[in-house]
Specification:
The chain has one domain (3-33, 78-347): Metal-dependent hydrolases (TIM Barrel), CATH 3.20.20. 38% of the residues lie in helices and 12% in strands. The chain is built from twelve helices and twelve strands. The strands form four sheets. The chain has a five-stranded parallel β-sheet. Strands 3-6-7 form a three-stranded parallel β-sheet. The longest helix has 17 residues, at 180-196. Bound molecules: zinc ion (ZN). Zinc ion is lined by residues 28, 30, 100, 171, 299, 301. Zinc ion (ZN) binds at residues 28, 30, 100, 171, 299, 301.
């Protein structure tokens, strides 16, 4: 057990810090990412032109609606842009951010450390694997134990030879229906959590039954559900009673798609809720007694959501959403719980 060393600390890319140093935290963002795994190539010739063009004012309207279908939009490769965007968040009062980029979608420990130094932001780096389409070619042959060892190593020793350590296990990607290898990665995450005391961050398949299926699988491994975050809850569960079931399991419900204001969801058949609908659900869940289970973020993973490209930026929740939550009757203390206390609780190693 190595948990003794990290126990009671939050592990950032610049080393462990005390939980009280964390402050306002977004628990799911991507400062750097290669998200081309979701590229959806249009069939029509004219749209292929749009798909392969660099993002510009001329095509931004099309890209905002068809954001999976422009390759340039799906890459956040520029560190200077990341620093500028992250600095906006810091100026708005942000202190910490989980970079949920996992293996296969461009996880970049050294760049994250440079961004953290340049901005003063506490950056917590992810571990494990995203959805099956991004897995390495030999994933079929890898065992749960091997995958768990790899996660433990990233947390205790660091990624490759960088010495930079992960502070959260995820985002682990799951599809619907679940693939065997994705299930293996989730089980490995549960085992690695017990060895390290790290929190789990899980991207569920797009189906209302997915979160409870993941929780059931995690329970078999002995994972701590109270230290598990279910991502993208607003595009996963549309039946509010099911929200209560998932929150009642003791996990965190992460409303991490703030800033998406187009109901057209390129991963149809479901619609993307608006910020107003997210806030309605959050206010309702608070009324049901679940304020300590809610986390907020933007899950920025494309250019069109950055301020530089006409998007809302990492400061949207702090600048725009917090005042609107207050207008809906959410108290200052409840906002503090969701933005500071809940991230602190879940990110602190057991
Ligand atoms: Zn994400």
């Amino acid at each position: 057990m190595v948990s003794s060393k990290l126990s009671g600390k939050v592990q950032t890319v610049l080393g462990p810090i005390g939980p009280d140093d964390l402050g306002v935290t977004m628990t799911h963002e991507h400062l750097m990412i290669d998200f081309r795994c979701v590229f959806l190539e249009p069939q029509e010739a004219s749209k292929k032109g749009l798909a392969y063009a660099p993002i510009s004012m001329e095509n931004l309207g099309w890209i905002r609606y068809n954001w999976r279908s422009n390759l340039d939009n799906l890459t956040l490769f520029d560190e200077e842009t990341a620093i500028t965007e992250a600095s906006r968040y810091v100026r708005a009062g942000g202190r910490a951010m989980v970079d949920a980029t996992s293996i296969g979608i461009g996880r970049d420990p050294v760049a994250l450390a440079r961004i953290a130094r340049a901005t003063g932001l506490h950056v917590v780096m992810g571990a494990s694997y995203y959805v099956g389409s991004t897995h390495p070619p030999d994933m079929d042959q890898r065992t749960v134990e091997q995958l768990a060892d790899e996660v433990v190593r990233d947390i205790t020793e660091g990624v490759d030879d960088t010495g930079i350590r992960s502070g959260i296990i995820g985002e682990i990607g799951c599809s619907w229906p679940w693939t065997d290898n994705e299930r293996k990665a989730v089980r490995a995450g549960g085992i690695a959590q017990q060895h390290t005391g790290a929190p789990l961050l899980i991207h569920p398949g797009r189906h209302e039954a997915a979160p409870m299926e993941i929780i059931a699988e995690l329970r078999k491994t002995g994972a701590d559900i109270s230290r598990t975050i279910i991502c993208h809850i607003e595009r996963t569960i549309y039946d509010w009673n099911k929200l209560v079931e998932v929150a009642g399991a003791g996990c965190y419900l992460e409303y991490d798609l703030f800033g998406h204001e187009s109901s057209h969801y390129p991963f149809a058949p479901t619609d993307m809720p608006s910020d107003a609908q997210r806030m309605d659900q959050i206010a309702w869940l608070i009324g049901q007694g679940f304020v300590e289970n809610i986390l907020l973020a933007h899950d920025v993973c494309t250019k069109h959501r950055l301020a530089r490209y006409g998007g809302h930026g990492f400061d949207h929740i702090l600048n725009n959403i917090v005042p609107r939550l207050r207008q809906r009757g959410v108290t200052e203390e409840q906002v503090h719980t969701m933005l500071v206390e809940n991230p602190k609780r879940v990110l602190t190693f057991k």
